[in-house]
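Final report, closing paragraph on structural work. Over the funding period we assembled a curated collection of sequence-structure pairs, and we close with a single example.
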Amino acid sequence: MSNVFGRILRLTSFGESHGPAVGGILEGMPAGVEVDFERIGRQLARRRPGQSKLTTSRPESDEPEFLSGIFEGRTLGTPIAFVVRNRHARSADYEHLRDAYRPSHADYTYEQKYGLRDWRGGGRASARETVARIIGGELAGMLIPDVEVTAYVHAVGTEELNRSWEELDLGRIDDHAVRTPDPAAAERFAALIEQARREGDTLGGQIVCVVKNVPPGWGEPVFDKLQARLAAAMLSIPAVKGFEYGSGFGGSRMHGSEHNDIFLPEGGTATNRSGGIQGGITNGMPVYFRVAFKPVATLMRPQPTINREGKRVEIEGKGRHDPCVVPRAVPIVESMTRLVLADFYLLQKIQAHGQT
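Its predicted structure, as stored:
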């Protein structure tokens, strides 16, 4: 199983949803970086369950324990190991799934690959694993403090913002539990999520991420393009079904004369349909992209499926589940973006050193 992300800055995650703990090891972090533990805590709080009525009620505090790699508040240059204990798992909620496969989950595919599976909350396939991504990503962000990474909910179900990120006050993202900077849209999104919860159903949505102050020159040509690494990072997040950057699929409907960015004499461009990336390398403009999330697969109402014997059965979700994961996924998108960018930052430093 592939549990490692990154080239120079490498995050290894481990643990299952209902095991003793989840955690990770971050390697490649330079020595001497001051660690902002409060920043890590804030980002974990944005991801953790039980934070509002729009999320699962599993009351995990998500307090990390750092086991190595940090001394007197600074990184040592050695592997940073950390764990977060699972203190409120209720495995009995999943007993009825011991022999049944949940539709659109990884239950069947994991069992086909490994011959067995952890049926308690999805095991390794659970979004509980993303705790490690938050911690690793926030540590990575401390390497590139001038780079601003901001994500927000752009759409829930069929409702979406009708304004681009340039028109929004991104400082208001956390004003509402939905995590969108448009107050009116936040209320609409919340109402949709509440309705889905009452009906025992779920919703998907979209997240936009904007990265400012990225210097030109980060990224690689051909197989290791920045957008390719960002896409890999986003598509590795549970429930993600799509990724587009810059003009995305909309750009395919334009003429070249309409789509091409216009460079200004004083530097920069009048438009940024490239999404801040050209040839796989940053051009100094803001990088922006959009990530699509599917509806949560666990429904709190009966639905048909099959069991291990291939017989049709009916199951119904029990316990604590999100009716929509998108608000809690905002910090995950940000942290994975920081992991990608910090990795390219280190690569750029190595290449620059080799050229001197």
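DSSP finds seven helices and 16 strands in the chain. The chain has a mean pLDDT of 91. We thank the funder for supporting this effort.
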